[in-house]
Amino acid sequence: MSLRKKLSPVRIKNNLFRKEIGSAPGTLTHIGEKKLDKVIIEIHDYDNDRLDIKKIESIADCKPYVHTPNPTWVQVKGLHDIEYLKELWEEFEFHPLIQEDILNTTQRPKIESYGEQIFMVLKMLYIEDGKLLLEQVSVVFTEKFIFSFQESERKIFLPIKERLAINNTRMRKSGPDYMAYALMDIIIDYYFGILEDINEEIEIIEDELWAGEDVNALSSIHKIRRQLIQFRKSIWPLRDSINSLIRDESSLVKDETKLFLRDVSDHTIQIVDSLDNNREMVSSLHDMHQTNISNKMNEVMKVLTIIATIFIPLTFIAGIYGMNFDYMPELGWHYSYPIAWGVMILVTIGMVLFFKRKNWM
Amino acid sequence: MSLRKKLSPVRIKNNLFRKEIGSAPGTLTHIGEKKLDKVIIEIHDYDNDRLDIKKIESIADCKPYVHTPNPTWVQVKGLHDIEYLKELWEEFEFHPLIQEDILNTTQRPKIESYGEQIFMVLKMLYIEDGKLLLEQVSVVFTEKFIFSFQESERKIFLPIKERLAINNTRMRKSGPDYMAYALMDIIIDYYFGILEDINEEIEIIEDELWAGEDVNALSSIHKIRRQLIQFRKSIWPLRDSINSLIRDESSLVKDETKLFLRDVSDHTIQIVDSLDNNREMVSSLHDMHQTNISNKMNEVMKVLTIIATIFIPLTFIAGIYGMNFDYMPELGWHYSYPIAWGVMILVTIGMVLFFKRKNWM
Amino acid sequence: MSLRKKLSPVRIKNNLFRKEIGSAPGTLTHIGEKKLDKVIIEIHDYDNDRLDIKKIESIADCKPYVHTPNPTWVQVKGLHDIEYLKELWEEFEFHPLIQEDILNTTQRPKIESYGEQIFMVLKMLYIEDGKLLLEQVSVVFTEKFIFSFQESERKIFLPIKERLAINNTRMRKSGPDYMAYALMDIIIDYYFGILEDINEEIEIIEDELWAGEDVNALSSIHKIRRQLIQFRKSIWPLRDSINSLIRDESSLVKDETKLFLRDVSDHTIQIVDSLDNNREMVSSLHDMHQTNISNKMNEVMKVLTIIATIFIPLTFIAGIYGMNFDYMPELGWHYSYPIAWGVMILVTIGMVLFFKRKNWM
Amino acid sequence: MSLRKKLSPVRIKNNLFRKEIGSAPGTLTHIGEKKLDKVIIEIHDYDNDRLDIKKIESIADCKPYVHTPNPTWVQVKGLHDIEYLKELWEEFEFHPLIQEDILNTTQRPKIESYGEQIFMVLKMLYIEDGKLLLEQVSVVFTEKFIFSFQESERKIFLPIKERLAINNTRMRKSGPDYMAYALMDIIIDYYFGILEDINEEIEIIEDELWAGEDVNALSSIHKIRRQLIQFRKSIWPLRDSINSLIRDESSLVKDETKLFLRDVSDHTIQIVDSLDNNREMVSSLHDMHQTNISNKMNEVMKVLTIIATIFIPLTFIAGIYGMNFDYMPELGWHYSYPIAWGVMILVTIGMVLFFKRKNWM
Amino acid sequence: MSLRKKLSPVRIKNNLFRKEIGSAPGTLTHIGEKKLDKVIIEIHDYDNDRLDIKKIESIADCKPYVHTPNPTWVQVKGLHDIEYLKELWEEFEFHPLIQEDILNTTQRPKIESYGEQIFMVLKMLYIEDGKLLLEQVSVVFTEKFIFSFQESERKIFLPIKERLAINNTRMRKSGPDYMAYALMDIIIDYYFGILEDINEEIEIIEDELWAGEDVNALSSIHKIRRQLIQFRKSIWPLRDSINSLIRDESSLVKDETKLFLRDVSDHTIQIVDSLDNNREMVSSLHDMHQTNISNKMNEVMKVLTIIATIFIPLTFIAGIYGMNFDYMPELGWHYSYPIAWGVMILVTIGMVLFFKRKNWM
Prior knowledge:
The structure is a homopentamer.
Chain A: H1 2-6, H2 8-15, E1 40-46, E2 51-56, H3 59-66, E3 72-77, H4 82-91, H5 96-103, E4 110-114, E5 117-128, E6 131-141, E7 145-150, H6 158-164, H7 170-173, H8 176-211, H9 217-247, H10 255-320, H11 329-332, H12 336-357
Helix pairs in contact in A: 8-9, 8-10, 9-10, 10-12
């Protein structure tokens, strides 16, 4: 009961898990933790020769950049000011379900086509204090512009910005579909880092188990299992989504870009495979740990058994001659005492030989 | 034997599980618990401008509302008065198999097309006294009307009624197919709540296991496993059903609505994924619990072994000099007693060092 | 070795498992237990207005009923008189492989199309003395007649006969395809009863485990596992078979009947799902049982450890002053005895506190 | 290390597992154990009216029989004389890959079409000294002839020869495709025998476990698992192969024969199902065995605990009054001894009641 | 903590696992260990009559061989000198993604078509010091030439070179597609060797477990599991890749070669099957090991229990008559001592009989 008390912060977070039951689809409610107070919007308007970067304040400032034939990347950080976001979305005619899904940060990753718009939900992963955390990144792109939405101010896309700053690159020459690929690619690149961390933790546990220092192995194993489950949840649905994007017939994604998407698809499969292998490894480690415990118990039991089975009979012999009967002939014999010692030594030697034969010593 | 006695209420319920063997298909028998005495029928006749809500008594009162071109939602509560329901169904030409399935509350969830009519069986879940209970909700819709059937008076669809009360919404503008979507959506919304409760219980067990207070962990784990199995049974078959509805070529489900159905399909997949992840988590918790028990046993054994292996040899030494032999030279020596103490202390130190090296202390 | 002896009856049964190696396909050998001495044939010739039921003796008597345009159901009980059956089959031109499969009662359930004839193998299940037994029921139907074959005289199809006795029902109006559906449906109806029994047994084990009275849990769990495996074997292959019958293009199965077959297909899926869920439940129960055993062992060990670790040191102290050294100053002191008691009580209190802190008491 | 020594014969056998790395495809190397010194060839040239059987010496003798329009079955035993076989194969234009695969007895079973020729690899199973052994049987057939190759002189196809000796049978009337079916069918017939043996072994283990005589259960279980794995490996790939043969469009396999192949396909599925069920059974038996061991340990521990916890405190009491303090008032009292006995009996009764309540006695 | 220190070399290796996050696709970074300092290039220009082998220094030397109509195999060893390799790739117009993937040695195996070029990533496996190591081999081929890239100087393809040296072979007559097949085939041939080694290790563990010498079984089992996981990762993705190559419609792979590819595909399936079987075997071995440990513990416990339960009561009896009460009538009786012995012997016989009945002795 008192435990329930302690857990309350967790449960408050849980209450954010879903919107009110039965609300209409398209009802805009932000579901998730509030990570940023104000919405920050940054516009990247580019073609092969030119790159304009601007932080904007009002939605109106946004329009002249976006409604041009050259590609524009609008980066939006913070999902709390729904009114403000709604104005933006209405301006660029986002489908109501897209709007709802951007705000619901408990979505599973997916890629969906809404005719003129393609909508992607991705999960940015990072490890903080040994916990696997995630931030939802949504991307909407059409033939002319691309919007990215993220919950916090984390500089996830910094490398993209650096590459965008260089003239005459494929990124500058290509349209929003390539930019969408680039955003997806970078997030999956981060996954490899997480995977590496998990691999390393598994190796540490393995080394600890070899070394016999496995006091914390159990909790470490459980923690990694939990991380693997969460990780898998974030990447597994992407496999099919990316493939359906590759097979997509619309002109929104160019054939050139599809080759690159195939590459991303390959990476997701590689990560999913590694996760599955890791799961198997962890399961094998758990078996090993369990057997280690049994082995240790066996050793403890052996020591107890050896000591007890040697000394209990000896103590019995000593006890016999500690009895106070008046008529015990042995008591008066002269060599009784050394004979008693002799018997006890013989018993001990017999026991030791028995244990040696049993391979317990 | 006496156990069988105690279980009888359960078995009585079990007897409701199926109708008489070999009865003709379309034989109308109510299979399930009786949750409501009288059948309650409420009609919602609506278009964009108008909403008529009426509780009706006789089937005849029903007809003028339903046989109009604008959509009508007939909400039926209680499945016991078969004669009464039969009259209703005959009036609106329900297929015999639909009639049979509405009454059989042990159906698995499904969506089936009977030409002009689409028939859905859904499972409303709720947790009462820590038990996962379910109520069957059936929906039949055509191009002009939609019927919903439920077992009890639970106000499952209250939020729908509230939304229906508002003019000019998508719900008021759309037909029975959208209403069918809305009913399905709300039931799946409830699932997220149940999922949250289960997640919370898993977290509590996890915390208890970390804290070592796992006296009830075993039964909690088994209870959650049972809930997960039942839950999965209620949602798993929906995945394919919804997808086949989306791919359906008939004009009964409009393309607009299909986008929303895709959203529902997404939610079901998300829930199934979460259930699978939970199952894995619970399995990991069980492993952890099992290992915990082994660890505790190990600790108990270590204490026993340490105490016993230290004191049993000492007691033996004391026993030796408790013997009453007449000729035991040591007994008469002046320093025998302190020497005996010395030996015993040395043995003890040796044992302690041995245990330290073994990492048992 | 002596065990092999005891098992001989089982092995004799096993020898019935297959016909002679390498015999030609279509070689007619009855494989299975002999359950009935004489072949019993009953003819049901019916249309909407008329129903003739007749037990026949010679094959010749059979012909006038079967070779009419209205549907005829020929019910054959007993598979031993191969000569007699062969005459029957030749008359109605059964394919050699059908003939062979009817006699081989170890067949897995299946539905196969041989052009003009559709052949179904079904498994009738019943529980006797806690054992799951099965009887093979084969059905062959064409556009004009339907034959059912069963091993024993069990009145499996009694409810069908009762329904057939009523005029103007769907059964009387429809052809052999509907009758085939009805036969299949009734057998699957029996499955629900078996499922119920198994569910009940699982609940009893569950209650016993909760109550701690799990002496027989292990064997009950194994028995149920065995039943689930056998049950699954009898129903699993039907899933695909029924679906391929539904998708069948031939005119042998009418569209109307296909709707009913879809219902049967639904039932089989429901049963398979339940079996899988039961399997998972049983597996969870086994885990629970295993953990229960470990817990009990833990408790036993704790009692041993507490008693032993408290009294072994005390006995040692008592042993010290039971030594017979001539020079033991404490022996002569006046308050030695009460002091010794004091020390022993302090040691006991210390131990108890230690155990309390460890939560062992 | 010394173990490796002991295992050397096994490893020598293993070296036969594959040909030299990087040798050209079609390089003819016999891979497997040498089971027969000389190649034995027997020719069966038959049509409906005539059957010529002849053991031949030189390849040239072979030609007049095979190059006739009526079907010829050439049975080849022994795979060691590669030169000799090569001559044969060249004569009848076997594809190089077929030649290679016939010689490699580690092939998995498969059916492959090489245009005019269909090539089948099958595994003949038999149990010798409790070990599951296999012999590879390869079959090549065209429209006019069929070759079978086997490693040893085992009379696998004796029943075929007996049937072939009878005039006017389907076998004599049909072509090589039917003969191919017959060969495959007989090998799968043998599988049922093996399956029966395994079933019987499982039943014996089950009975032993029930009877508590499970000393060898562990090794028996492991042995059966190994057999099931090997068995599955020999039959599993056949499923798809046979089905692709049934769907084959070429005229090599006649429609009539395909009906019979469907029957074989059915048998393979039935065997695979049984193997899977057996695997589950064995797994359940292992669980049972494991729990049995825990139960036994529990019982051992209970006896120890009961004896130890009763007598250790009593021994302590006796120890107290074995002390030699000069001033112990109880020692002088007249009724001390009977009182001491009284206390000890009370302690014993208390303990026994405690154990009774715990259900340990 | 100190463990992390020790692991640092591993982690440095891990850092090679991926390139910088967010770098553009096609950015050329070598990912993997540096195994060779200088890039070594060897050209094999051949047709049926002629074979020119030449080690070249500058890229320019390469061109006259490759840009001829007859097939040329360019073998490249060492992946570190990116500038040098880039020059080569630019000359022969490799797709940027191919270039990137050749350098990234953490790729999963795959076969991809880039229009005119087909790109294959393969994993060469070898066991060194009991560890399963891998080297990535990439192959690019067009209609006219084939390039192979490997990390080290290992003479993997020596057998190919030997076969290539022979005139008039299929290899000399065929084009780069056949050479690609040959390279793939040889790598998979090596897999059989690894498989054999793993099989052998499994057999050794099995023998050790039978012999009861299972001290290292646990670590061996874990090691093999790890190897199986890694092995599977290297071969599993090839299955689909090869099949898609076989189904490929382009003219790059000739129909003749496809027959051989089918053979390779067969081998990969065979290996994957064997790996799965091995995994099951290892799992069964682990179960066996676990049960072995329990059995041993049982035996240890039995010895302890037998000794302790026999001698503890005896010691108690001896303790009774070691008490120093003044009034203990038995002490003065003449036959007390032999009677005490008698009682003790009777108790012992009783205990032994009890243990015999329990089958513990």
